[in-house]
Amino acid sequence: MEDRIKLQRATYHLWTFTVSKLISTSGAQVYSFAISFYILQLTGSATSFATNLLCNILPRTLAAPFIGYVADNYSRKIIIITSQIATTLAIGGLLFISLTSGLSLIAIYTTTCILSITSTFSGVTFTSSITGLVDEARIQKAMSLNQMSVSFASIGSPAVGGLLYGSVSMPVFLIIYLIASFIAVLLEATMNFNLFAKRKTKVDGSTKEPLLQSMKAGIHYLKLQPIIMTIIWISLLINFLFGAYEVGYSFILIEKLKIISQHFGFTQGAFAIGMLLLSIYFSIGKEVKFPLLTSKRGIIGMGIVLSSIALPLLISMTYGFTVLYYVMIMFCFGSLMITVNTPIQVMLQKKIDDDYKGRVFSILETMAMALMPLGMVLYGFLYDIFPAQWVLILSSFLLISVVLILARPSIIKKAHPELIKHVKGKARAVS
């Protein structure tokens, strides 16, 4: 009877978590859309726009190690609710300033810094809490629903933002985000973050483990987990090499091929739809048996798609066929991204001890955020010097090489020892 009640509660968590994530992510993306346009219209300066991006990235990178420590030593429910309340208050403060004295760049930058920190607190802690919210059999479903909410927000938010911007004032955008954040607080308050948790650490902070010692313990734990370390290195190097896509895709389509903004938007929409459809598939399908092998194949596929972005620069195509080609390419790219991310996320959720999840995910966040700007700066430099098609093709080759080396057959067998039995079983069935 008790197990049935826990499973019913886990089902409630699945949908509450998804709705909360959808509401808060949509609000954040509509706000981001509006504030980006506002800064550009207010100043006409790319530097002011870039400064706002820096205010989003830098605080996250600096705060992530501390966030992992807090997530592993204190109540995760209190951290998430406090973070969401802080988000609500920050938006409320910006709304008050806009209504009384008008928005200024200083107020926007300050709010962006606060939102960056609170979203990282919430994101790392939520990721660390999945195995406490739902039963092990539905971790893949939870991660897929999370991706679905992000995909829905990616599809709908720019459309909503585009329709509203110009027809309503900035305070209306802030009110929308304020309401979304407040609803998210109410939903998160009803969730039991310890339903399936297996934490040994006291969550009242009474252990008083120093921050530096806690981080060292997290790194020491990772050293004893070679498969997790392999996954982290693959993730980091992929993040770095993805600068080729982040910088090059818009540059090639807009500057080189002169694709108009509306059609460029169609290709971005196809990417989000590909993510959404694969997220739905993973949410209703069976759990992936060999996640690292599945992700390895997905990354190889992404490497091929990355090089395919360069094809219209090498072969002459009509404008209409070029747009259609990129719609198909981006649909495949979005689908492959979920094929890579979801199995790996499920594997990490199951392999990392509850007491170390905050630190491990914060280490991953810190390193990924540190490498991302470096990759974008490097690729911005490369695209200015070398032909774009060769930058993409070389990056594709490096991406595939990285996964073939780091996820070589010996590592796959170590991660999935049951794979050998599976292959032998298939061989016997054929014979």
Automatic annotation (TrEMBL):
Pfam families: MFS_1 (PF07690). It is found in: Cell membrane. GO terms for molecular function: transmembrane transporter activity. InterPro entries: MFS (IPR011701), MFS_trans_sf (IPR036259). One of its GO terms (cellular component) is plasma membrane. Its main location: membrane. The chain crosses the membrane at residues 12-31, 78-100, 106-127, 148-168, 174-196, 224-245, 265-285, 297-317, 323-348, 360-382, 388-407. It is a multi-pass membrane protein. Keywords: Cell membrane, Membrane, Transmembrane, Transmembrane helix, Transport. This is MFS transporter. It comes from Heyndrickxia oleronia.
